[in-house]
Amino acid sequence: MESARESLARPMALSIGDSLVAIEIDTSLYGLDAIFRASYRFTDRCYIFLARIPEAPTLVAITLMAKHPTADLRPLVGEICNELIDQQIRLALSKEVGPLRELIVAQAFAEGNLLDAQRDDGDYEGDPLGIGRSR
Questions:
Q1: Is the pLDDT of residue 35 over 80?
Q2: What is the DSSP string of 25-91?
Q3: pLDDT at position 47, please?
């Protein structure tokens, strides 16, 4: 018999034959953006259906349906779970470093210095930053 800890170690997945698999995803762990992005990565291999579970408002069901009747989708359960983690981390990193990345890109394409406009206003004779002064 399976212990409670072992059942928590993997997602709630229901195999309805080889060509139809459903996975329950907890939206308190994975945001909807991550769920949509991860699901999209599998659209080349199967049809994806997303639905909220009315009895459990924090759960979303991802149903994978084979494009070919002989395809076995059971191995995709682990793959989509890994993809969910990947997408959730990508979104967290984007949120964390996004403003810095945008500033670096803006600076790269800017004609002047976005952080210190005075650097571009001076000339070598005026030396507004005092670079030429001896120490």
A1: yes
A2: EETTTS-HHHHHHHHHTTTTTEEEEEEEETTEEEEEEEEEEESSTT---TTHHHHHHHHHHHHHHHH
A3: 96
